[in-house]
C-alpha cells in the first residue's frame, strides 16, 4: 500500500517539492530558485528549461532526503502559480518563454476592449468573479495571437505553469477547474467560458486550450525517461492538481465553508471559503473555484514578500547573500518602534498595479514621510508594516467579522511578521501545523485523494486541520498601530486619488 505522496509547488520564483505521509507530516523538502526575466517593461517570464530542470531536481532531492522507498510512494500532485501562458508544440517542447501571472503586456488590448465597451470589465467579473489581471491566460493569448502568430501556428497547447510541468512528466495535456474558471472563465460552472473566449477574439485559438478535469484525479504516469531521472517507478500516477491558491487552502486544512485563509507569499491574499460562488463586493478581488465544490472569495495585494526581497536587495546588499538574511533584517526592523517613527511604505511593487481595495493599474510602491532621521531599521520596519497594512485593507474590504485567520505562505515563518499581522488585524492569527509547504502538501493531498486514501477532498483537507501556532493580538501595541494605520490610509488615499 502506498504510504507517501509527493507534492510539487512551482511558484513564480521558487520551485519546491516535499514528500508527505498519510497524516500530512512532511518527511523532506527541496527547493530551487527560478529567476523571473523582465526583458521589456511590463513583461514577466520564466525560462521553461530552467523551470523543468528545477522541478526534476527538487523532486529527486526531496525523495532522496526523505529516505523513503520509492516503491512506497503512491503518486505525485502538482500546484503552481496560476494563469499566464506556456506555449508548447506537439512534442511538448516550449516554443517561447513562459508568461506568468504578473505580466502586463496585454494592457493595450484591454484598453481597446474598454474603449469599445466601457462595461466590459464588469461583464467579465460577472462571469469569472474576478478582476481580470493582464497576466490572465485569455488576454495574454490575445496578445500572442496579435504579436506572435507564427508561434501559435506551431503550437499544440497553451498551458498554465503546472500543466506545462505535468505535460513534461506524463506526456498528457490537461488543466483543472481552478485554472479554467479564472482565465477568465465561468466561476459558477467551474469551467472555461465560450463567451469569454469569443470576447477576446480567440475562437480560432480555442483548440490550444486543453481539456478540463477534476483536480483530485490522475492523468497518466511518469514517462520512462523522466522516471529514471527522478529515481521513481515508471508509470507512477500524476494527479491533475490545482492552482497554488487552491492547493494552499487544502494543505492548510482550510477547505470548509467559513474558513478564513491568508497567504503571505509573493503576493498577499486574504479570503473566505463559501458553499456558493460569491461576487460581492463587485468589481474587486478574485474568486477561485476550489476542489470539493467550494469557492474562495479573496482580496489580493499583488506584491507580498516580494517587497521584502526587493528591500533586502536594494537597501541591504551586504546582507542579501547571507543564508540567514531574513533574520538579520528582522533584527533591524525590531530596532525601530511600532509605526516606524512615522515612516509609511505603500507595498504596490508590481507593474500591474493593485486590484484591492480598489483597482488601480498605475499604483506603485513608495515610501512616504521619509526624512534624514530615518535609518535602515525604520525602512525595513516600514516595509514589514506596509505589507501588514495592505493585508488589513484586504481584511476590511472582504468584511470578515468573526474568528481567527489561518496564515500561510513563506512570510508566515516569521514570528515577528505573524505577530505584527495579528496586532494590526486585531484578530487571532494561526499558522497551521505540519509544514511550511502548504501548497506542496495540498498537491500531495490531491494525489492521495485520487489514489483513494480519502473519501473526498474535503475529508482529506480536514485530516490536516487543527493545531498550529496561535498569535493573539497584543493590546499594548494597539494604539501605536492604529495611529500608524491611519497614516498609511492617508498616504494610500492620496496616491490613489492622484492616480484616478
Task: Look at the helices and sheets and give the structural class.
Answer: alpha/beta
- Major sheet: size, sense and barrel closure? 7 strands, mixed
Rg value: 22 Å
What CATH architecture of the largest domain would you give? 2-Layer Sandwich
Give the tally of β-strands.
22
- Fraction of residues in helices? 25-40%
Shape: globular
Write down the oligomeric state: single chain
Beta-strand content estimate: 15-25%
How is this structure best described in words?
Helices cover 37% and strands 19% of the residues. With 500 residues, it is of the alpha/beta class. It folds into two domains: 243 residues, ATPase, nucleotide binding domain (Nucleotidyltransferase, domain 5, 2-Layer Sandwich); 209 residues, ATPase, nucleotide binding domain (Nucleotidyltransferase, domain 5, 2-Layer Sandwich), CATH 3.30.420. Strands 16-17-15-14-20-21-22 form a seven-stranded mixed sheet, with helices on both faces. Helix 14 links the parallel strand 20 and strand 21. The mean pLDDT is 95.
Amino acid at each position: 500500500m502506498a504510504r507517501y505522496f509527493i507534492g510539487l509547488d512551482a511558484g513564480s520564483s521558487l520551485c519546491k517539492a516535499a514528500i508527505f505521509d498519510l497524516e500530512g507530516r512532511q518527511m523532506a523538502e527541496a527547493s530551487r530558485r527560478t529567476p523571473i526575466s523582465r526583458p521589456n517593461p511590463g513583461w514577466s517570464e520564466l525560462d521553461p528549461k530552467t523551470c523543468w530542470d528545477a522541478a526534476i531536481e527538487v523532486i529527486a532531492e526531496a525523495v532522496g532526503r526523505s529516505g523513503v522507498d520509492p516503491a512506497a510512494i503512491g503518486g505525485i500532485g502538482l500546484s503552481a502559480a496560476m494563469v499566464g501562458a506556456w506555449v508548447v508544440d506537439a512534442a511538448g517542447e516550449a516554443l517561447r518563454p513562459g508568461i506568468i501571472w504578473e505580466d502586463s503586456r496585454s494592457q493595450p488590448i484591454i484598453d481597446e476592449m474598454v474603449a469599445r465597451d466601457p462595461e466590459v470589465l464588469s461583464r467579465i467579473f460577472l462571469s469569472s468573479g474576478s478582476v481580470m489581471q493582464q497576466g490572465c491566460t485569455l488576454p495574454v493569448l490575445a496578445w500572442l495571437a496579435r504579436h506572435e502568430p507564427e508561434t501559435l501556428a506551431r503550437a499544440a497547447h497553451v498551458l498554465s505553469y503546472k500543466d506545462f510541468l505535468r505535460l513534461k512528466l506524463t506526456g498528457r495535456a490537461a488543466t483543472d477547474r481552478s485554472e479554467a474558471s479564472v482565465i477568465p472563465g465561468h466561476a459558477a460552472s467551474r469551467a472555461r467560458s465560450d463567451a469569454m473566449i469569443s470576447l477576446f477574439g480567440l475562437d480560432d485559438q480555442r483548440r490550444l486550450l486543453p481539456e478540463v478535469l477534476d483536480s483530485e484525479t490522475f492523468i497518466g504516469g511518469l514517462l520512462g525517461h523522466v522516471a529514471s531521472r527522478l529515481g521513481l517507478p515508471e508509470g507512477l500516477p500524476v494527479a491533475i492538481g490545482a492552482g497554488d491558491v487552491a492547493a494552499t487552502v487544502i494543505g492548510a486544512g482550510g477547505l470548509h465553508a467559513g474558513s478564513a485563509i491568508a497567504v503571505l507569499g509573493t503576493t498577499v491574499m486574504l479570503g473566505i471559503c463559501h458553499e456558493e460562488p460569491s461576487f460581492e463586493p463587485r468589481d474587486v478581488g478574485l474568486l477561485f473555484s476550489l476542489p470539493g465544490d467550494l469557492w474562495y472569495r479573496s482580496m489580493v495585494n499583488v506584491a507580498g514578500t516580494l517587497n521584502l526581497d526587493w528591500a533586502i536587495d536594494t537597501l541591504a546588499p551586504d546582507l542579501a547573500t547571507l543564508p540567514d538574511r531574513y533574520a538579520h533584517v528582522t533584527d533591524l526592523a525590531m530596532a525601530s518602534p511600532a509605526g516606524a517613527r512615522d515612516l509609511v511604505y505603500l507595498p504596490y511593487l508590481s507593474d500591474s498595479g493593485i486590484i484591492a481595495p480598489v483597482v488601480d493599474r498605475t499604483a506603485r510602491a513608495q515610501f512616504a514621510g521619509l526624512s534624514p532621521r530615518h535609518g535602515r531599521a525604520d525602512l525595513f520596519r516600514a516595509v514589514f508594516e506596509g505589507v501588514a497594512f495592505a493585508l488589513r485593507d484586504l481584511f476590511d474590504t472582504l468584511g470578515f467579522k468573526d474568528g481567527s485567520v489561518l496564515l500561510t505562505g513563506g512570510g508566515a515563518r516569521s514570528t515577528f511578521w505573524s505577530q505584527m499581522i495579528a496586532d494590526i488585524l486585531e484578530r487571532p492569527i494561526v499558522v497551521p501545523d505540519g509544514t511550511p509547504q502548504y501548497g506542496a502538501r495540498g498537491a500531495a493531498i490531491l494525489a492521495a485523494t485520487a489514489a483513494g486514501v480519502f473519501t473526498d477532498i474535503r475529508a482529506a483537507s480536514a485530516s490536516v486541520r487543527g493545531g498550529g501556532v496561535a498569535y493573539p493580538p497584543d493590546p499594548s501595541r494597539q494604539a501605536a498601530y492604529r495611529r500608524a494605520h491611519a497614516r498609511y490610509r492617508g498616504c494610500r488615499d492620496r496616491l490613489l486619488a492622484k492616480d484616478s
